[in-house]
Structures are given as C-alpha cells and as structure tokens.
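Working notes for the structural subgroup meeting. M.R. asked for a predicted model of this chain before we commit to crystallization trials. I am recording the input and output together here so anyone reviewing the notebook later can reproduce the run.

Input as submitted:
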Amino acid sequence: TDLLTVGQQLRVPRSNYIEYTVQRGDTLYSIANRYSTPQQIIRELNNLTTDLLQIGQILLLPKENV
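Returned structure, recorded in token form:
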C-alpha cells in the first residue's frame, strides 16, 4: 500500500546517496552549497533537528546533485 502511518520507519536504499563525513569547519550551509543540495533535504535525509554538526558525523547526500 502507499499509505504511511505516523512513526513508521522507511528504509531508503543508500545506492542513490553518498556518505559525507563532517570535517572541522563544516556547516550545514557550507555542505549544502558545496554539493548543490538544499539544507532542508540534508536535514530530512539525516533526521536532523538542528543545524549543529559534529566532526566525524556521517551525512547522506543525494547523488543526483553531486
């Protein structure tokens, strides 16, 4: 079915994404600009509730914009 329920977890194949490791000095804004991907897309893909990132954190980024 195409119906989703609140709290349902979906698995998204990683083949359409690259993994980016956050480096010292990175911000969500700078990563979004570097990979031409809207910040909101990065937030949604990685379940981010804040723009704060940690060095070594791994983010999924869509390949289509890379």
